Amino acid sequence: MSEQRRRNATRLGAAVGAAAGLALLSRSERVLDAVAPEFPRQRRWVVRVLGARMLVQHAVVLVRPEPAVVTAGAALDVLHAASMLPFLASARYGRAARVSGAVAFASAALAGAAARSQRR
User: What is the pTM of this model?
Assistant: First the structure.
């Protein structure tokens, strides 16, 4: 695969991540209703903060899809996934933690693979 194709694939993944972040930021109620209806509404600010972080992170990758930037984003996603571990069994936060952690882990794995392929 050419370098340009790798960058375009990385940008596509970043665009999806930015769109997800925008959805969490601007439509937190709808996302919570669909994904984790038991999540306390008074804590929806947490969902918006996550959305803002995702939007900024993936926007940076869109602008600079270089291996070091992609790797830094993947590291943030790994930290986020790890931060969800204490909440996995929670009746109140468990579903949201499982979904959020799984998405972050998948994003980290895809970004890590993209960064490795760009280094070749």
Answer: 0.90
